[in-house]
Amino acid sequence: MNHDRSRDLYDRALSVMPGGVNSSVRAAIEPYPFFVERGDGGHVIDADGNRYIDWVMGLGPLLYGHDLPQPVESAIQSRVSEGPMFGAPTEIEVEHAEFVTRHVPSVESIRFVNSGTEATVSACRLARAATGRDKIVVMQGGYHGAQETTLVEGEYDDVEPSSPGIPESFAEHTLAVPFNDEEAAHRVFEDHGEDIAAVMVEPILANMGIVTPVDGYHETLRDLTEDSGALLIFDEVITGFRIGGLQCAQGKFGIDPDITTFGKLIGGGFPVGAIGGRSELIEQFTPSGEVFQAGTFSGHPVTMAAGLESLRYAAEHDVHDHINDLGERLRTGLQEIVADQAPEYTVAGTEGIFKVLFTRDAPETFEGHCEGGCSQRPDCPRFEHCPKNAADVAAGQTDRWRRVFWEEMSEQGVFLAQNQYESQFVTHAHTDDDVEETLEAYKQAL
Ligand SMILES: *Cc1c(COP(=O)(O)O)cnc(C)c1O
Q1: Given this model, what pLDDT does residue 366 score?
Q2: What share of the chain is helix, strand, coil (3-state, %, to 5)?
Q3: What ligand 1 atom has the least distance to the C-alpha of 263?
Q4: Is 46 found in the same domain as 75?
Q5: How far is the CA of 207 from the centre of ligand 1 (A)?
Q6: Which of 238, 275, 419 to mutate to test the pocket of ligand 1 (most atoms within 8 A of CB)?
Q7: Nearest-CA neighbor of 222 among 263, 250, 246, 252?
Q8: Mutate to test the pocket of ligand 1, among 57, 112, 139, 144 (most ligand atoms within 8 A of CB)
Q9: What tens digit of pLDDT does each residue of 79-96 get?
Q10: Which molecular-function annotation in GO is an example for this chain (predicted)?
């Protein structure tokens, strides 16, 4: 494949943008990323005219790939033609809020913002204000955007900011426990229960490999938070409207969090975030309450049209069924390849997300293992081997994944997420052929 134009563009970009990109992960590809010219269904075409099957899909916001259904495209275009935004409320915001509160069980009221980061920042502020407590419990390796409270590394109550520029004093209020570890969850509440404002957790770790919860884990978090007067925040920025269909992952797992953060799909491919929950909580935001929250672009009419019409279309068509079927087929095919060629690797994911994790040990038998990807079933022979938390994922062959495997897949025209940690997304635009071609490429590259 020729990448001359991408290389030239990256060269120019390096002179005027830090690392040549506007979001770090895009530069994880070495020596330089390809630049995208345009999308086409489930594919992207790069600046040199190379075509790839795209499983990155914007890293989460695209349910329909790169071709919007006609009603979605018309709704966006008609909003644009009416003027981009106003600084006054519009009907489309009300309609979108009504749609979300109708479909997501725990959400009675919602505030739209402009990114997932903004949503998690506001959710932490709200939880702290509502409880009068400062500490936020997060999962090690969980991702909640580029924000001060959650960018931490280290263990338990010995955490530090994971980036320069964040005062140590922020990290003093953050506690980090391993995902799927019930004992650690109990301990953090025994030690710090009275100071904990909230536990913030992705229902499925989707920015650190893909790690699904073991049976009962979220129930434990729900009970612990309830008993101690803390709040449970589900960060559904990735899982929202993707996992569990329109009721989101909380519906699938049967858990009612107090606060939910949204992003990605809820804006149909435009910049977005949202904080939802019970009215008595969400109404503590200004102007109905005291907790300051505001944004020039919040509830942007074009974003609202894109998000609402995308979700409406999904409500009226078999969008999630198509996505989940293809996802299942992809993961089942990957499991066969892995069993044959790299039995130590783990096929992770559920419904429309997937990843092959380059883990290092295999069970003795594959008989009776989870079909269609690791689902943390205790009697599966892989159970002890499937990653349970971020440290387990990070212990895999992450450099081989990024430096060797990614490149080989790319050469075969398959665009995978830029490192071992980011999820890959099946969309409504993907086809059986895309799945077959992708499986062939894995066969060659693994
Ligand atoms: C992407 C993501 C965020 C951050 O959202 P941005 O729109 O990138 O700021 C927060 N939480 C989770 C779970 C995410 O996947």
Answers
A1: 82
A2: 40, 15, 40
A3: 7
A4: no
A5: 9
A6: 238
A7: 250
A8: 144
A9: 999 999 999 999 999 999
A10: pyridoxal phosphate binding
